[in-house]
Specification:
The structure is a single chain. By secondary structure, the protein is of the alpha+beta class. Strands 1-2-5-3-4 form a 5-stranded mixed sheet. α1 runs parallel beside α3. The relative contact order is 0.07.
Length: 332
């Protein structure tokens, strides 16, 4: 009987030891979970006080804060899965904040680049105005020369008439006077032609300046290449336009992550089908040239619009010139 009692005591002691070990293990797990929750809270506090991410992911931060606070206020044992879900929420919040931060940085860079492009355009416009003023001054000097030559011609004719009336010159002298008057007329006509050319150069300069100024539309930023790029009824880009294509490339390089749409337009001269085909060929020609300058043609869509979208009256020469254009659109 005594031996049986000793055996029972040994068994009870062993059972109590096992229960004690189980209790210690549970307390250890709970302590570990409490440590993980505390570490999670500290990590969250450090994150929301980071100046870099302070303005971003506000909704996600509030949601994560609610989850962590709910764990602290939970009665009883905190489940390991709940702590894991809380940490997963914090990780997602950090990712959203980083994404919004990068978007903001990119937007700021694009804004800076746009401002720089505008300053470049303003500078080039000022240079173009100076060139126009110079051409206008040259034109004024030529006009004075034309007036002077015209006066000389009139004086020569008057002198010849006077001498002939008075019969004080030989026939040969009279012919020489007439030849001189004719020569003066040629000089005056040449001066007029030069003046007309100067007017045309000023007008061409003005049209180029107007066409190469980027403008904002509902589709995106637009740069227009005017009728100076192509010859009449031709889809071949003039060499002078090719040599001065750097400004177009600078405009496109400012937006490397945006797609591009090239629209060809014509005036109403010729048949509608001919104009549609010509406008498509011109849009494709500009696309090909951009590719030669290193622009990824996969970003570019070339579309011919024909005569369907005039911007001016096709009943005037000036209006037709404005309608003959190629629009380069940096899509939003």
């Amino acid at each position: 009987m005594k031996k049986y009692s000793l055996t029972m005591n040994a068994r009870l002691s062993k059972s109590l030891l096992i229960l004690l070990l189980i209790l210690v293990a549970q307390l250890s797990v709970a302590a570990k979970k409490n440590l993980e929750l505390e570490a999670l809270r500290i990590e969250y506090d450090n994150f929301i006080t980071d100046i870099k991410y302070k303005p971003y992911a506000k909704t996600e931060k509030m949601n994560t804060k609610s989850i962590i606070e709910a764990l602290y206020n939970q009665r009883g044992k905190v489940k390991e899965h709940a702590v894991y879900m809380a940490r997963n929420s914090l990780v997602k919040t950090k990712m959203v904040a980083e994404s919004e931060y990068l978007d903001a940085q990119l937007a700021a860079e694009e804004e800076t680049l746009t401002a720089l492009n505008l300053e470049i355009l303003k500078t080039e416009a000022a240079v173009a105005r100076m060139e126009a003023d110079r051409a206008q001054l040259q034109l004024s000097l030529q006009a004075e020369e034309v007036a002077r030559e015209r006066l000389e011609k009139q004086r020569a004719l008057e002198l010849a008439s006077q001498i002939a009336t008075e019969a004080e010159m030989t026939q040969a002298e009279l012919e020489a006077a007439k030849d001189y008057a004719a020569a003066q007329k040629k000089v005056a006509d040449l001066a007029k032609q030069e003046a007309d050319l100067a007017f045309e150069e000023i007008d061409a300069l003005r049209r180029q300046l107007e066409s190469l100024a980027a403008r904002e539309t509902v589709d995106g930023l637009v740069m227009t290449l005017g009728d100076f790029v192509f010859g009449s009824a031709s889809a071949e880009i003039k060499q002078t336009a090719v040599d001065n294509f750097d400004k177009v490339i600078e405009f496109i390089d400012g937006y490397p992550n945006r797609n591009i749409r090239i629209e060809g337009h014509t005036d109403s001269s010729g048949s509608e089908s001919f104009n549609l085909n010509l406008s498509q060929q011109r849009a494709e020609a500009v696309k090909a040239l951009l590719g030669e300058y290193g622009v990824d043609t996969a970003r570019i869509e070339a579309v011919g619009m024909g005569e369907s979208m005039p911007v001016a009256d096709n009943n005037t020469a000036a209006g037709k010139a404005k309608n003959r254009r190629v629009d380069i659109i940096i899509l939003k």
